Input
Amino acid sequence: MPLLAGKKHLLRFCQGLVVPLVLVAVWEGLSRSGRINPQLLPAPSQIMAKWWETLKPAEPYDAAKTFFLRWLVSGELLADSVASLYRVLVGFVLGAGLALPIGLLMGAHRTVYRLFNPLMQILRPIPPIAFIPLSILWFGLGNPPAFFLISLGAFFPVLVNTIIGVRNVDSIYLRAARNLGASGRTLFLRIILPAAAPYILTGMRIGIGVAFIVVIVAEMIAVNNGLGYRILEAREFYWSDKIIVGMLTIGLLGLALDTGMEKLNAHLLRWHRGLDNS
Output
């Protein structure tokens, strides 16, 4: 059975590669035939060469450093990727950590919901990008404004999904637990929180995706490293191949984060009857 499941996963992975590989082949052919201006849209082979160039360490070999450490520290692309991921994770933890208790309170208590919902509904449609001028005024340049913008982007998806999850808990379970003498603490930990967990985790998955979008914008404004900064730098010098390298790196990192969140959700929600384990 494990071997059969492995073959199924491998088949699905290969099927997912068909369309991208065909598009890359067509793109390469059009570029080599001269139908596409390489200055505007470089060939995939040129982009891969630039990708490798940005991965290579800039400093000479130092025997005192391990191979991995040299590449991690001095490779421009890897250093920028680490900087962006650091900002995403810190901002996401701040935003989700604040949204989760507020969402639980708003979902569980009608009075709290009535008090805070108008304010949240006013702030929620405002994109985090609109807060860039204020974030720079409040926090200056560097990581603090980036953390603020990223946490703001992650805050509302987690908040909204948490509220929906708590408010959608089946009242039958609540009445049954109260009839059996469950305390408020037991009711929250054993009924409300597990029932709302699928919604909460979905909000976190959406929130970390939004956080990764916001970090690129924040890095174009407030910091001097990271993938967003590097793309903006490449635009200034009209390095289209480097721009695409940064974009593809963002896509791969976003895919890795989303896949990680999906695996985490599947692990934490193994008990959920609606989960497809096939």
